[in-house]
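Record 1 of the preview.
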Amino acid sequence: MKMRRGEIRMDYIKKDPFEEYIKQTEPEKRELGYAWYTAIGLQAVDGLSTSKYLKDTAKENIEGKITLKEAERLIEGYYEEASERDVDRRREADIVSARIAAILSENAFTFSVPQYIGIHRRLFHGIYLHAGKIRNYNISKKEWILDGESVHYGNSLEIRELLEYDIRMEKEYAYQLIDMKEIIQHLAKFISGLWQIHAFEEGNTRTTAVFFIQYLRTIGFDVTNDIFAEHAWYFRNALVRADYNDFSKDIRETTEYLESFLRNLLLDESNELKNRYMHVRWREKKQDIEEKKQDIQSEKQDVEEKKQDIQSEKQDIEEKKQNLVLTEKLSNKTRQHITDLFLKFGYEKFFGRTEVMNILGITASPASMLIKRMLELQLIYPMKGKGKGKYLFRRESIG
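->
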């Protein structure tokens, strides 16, 4: 069933109210909604949940009724007034959420060890005595997905050196020489390695996630979506699986789960993110043999399906040529420009202002205005993973 413009579907706004905000076309609300939604979702990595008061305060900030600093003060004051409100570490979850939202709403960031440590200090000041301090003893943590075993974390005597080495190696990495698949694989290895060091006594995953999000922005990725918010626990478990080996049980570290998470985050893919699939005993060897046999058949089917998909895609484009429906408020010239762009790029090819100028023979300013208008009409959306200023036509909004 097609949806008219301006019509609201009931299933569009899901269980969490912040999902509504990250779908907003207003940039400020969208960015604040993302920051709060991610901040709240990240508390799940330590089994924490936020209060209704926190969510209500966040909404007031998103709606522009209070500033982020005022929101932070209100939340901290809320717990100063009555200590009994700190139930199940709710105080920690609320205060840290507000601080994460504030950090994610800032543009200031340096890719460095002091920045990494500084994020931990800022998030957990007044909550942990060791906020912003590198741990001075070795640790282990029993993991459900490892059947109670632990990842081997960094030696406490070498943490500073390990952090500096990882950051230095990442700074020297030549991203411009590789494709997106390799970029995803490299990012998975980098962030899992940084997390495995486990520089702090507590709060490592939340600190690493915030640092990673800020870093991804500096290298051109748009991460203002709901992946971290909805799958924070999966993110942590994927880090665990990327850093654990037990050759005696034929268990090897793998970044495949982390790569699926990153592909959803950066490329807007829809890979299934289920925690149970990461359990070390999820697949029995007998089942694997059967699955491999089935894969041989499915690969043959995939070849045929791909052939059919190519043909159906061609037919789809031809149908759209005849049925491209645009709002009547557009001028004939704008309507023709949009149609020309769609016939050139379809659903699969991304484009930017330069391509619009070349295809339509217009200058930079009119091209920018046309792109802005198409975004307002939800005809196109930003293409993640290609840097800023690249767009794709939206399937459900055309025709």
